[in-house]
Amino acid sequence: MENAPPQPRPRGRPKTETDEDRQDKIRAGAMQVFVEKGFANTTMQDIARQAGVSKRDLYQQFADKTALFTDVIQSRRGLILDLPRPPEEVADPLTTLVRIFRLDLDEQQANERDALMRLISRESLLFPDLNAMLYDTGVLRSREALIDWLDHCVASGALPPCHTARLAGMLMDVVFGALLPRRQRKGAVDRAAQAADIRDRIAVVLAGFAALGQA
Known about the structure:
Helix content is 66%, strand content 0%.
């Protein structure tokens, strides 16, 4: 039996990092710089330096700073609202809302969620056009997604008939108001106590809308 001819060696260095790995590294670096310096004061050079990549590699992955900012928010929006829900999920509305509002995050994820929410809130006020772009591309359409889920709950009988847009607004107000209070916290956040407090707030809102529906 003849030996198979030797295969030619591939030229160049073996590829040890995939494009997806590089993009994740860039997103992490960009998130840190955006949080620290803000959108306006951040440069692509800052992001490349923080991510440990060349500007050439950075521009190969993302066209410009706005595209990268949008991608960072898009990739992490599940830290704020976990929607849509799995179609096979079976749970009462309160339990599911605890999952939707990500009250189950560990400390590191919760800190990143809080930083992301502060970033979005700050930049939306400073750059209305950027906020409009994030909304138009679907990145910030979380309220609409929550309304859709509440409509499904009403249709299935899990919730009584109610004004779901108003309910969505109140839920987001009570949850995000607790996550991002106007006064800056001092010291570490007790995440377990925070989650329990927000769960109680959600329960009060649901009970109030149920009572209105029965009136």
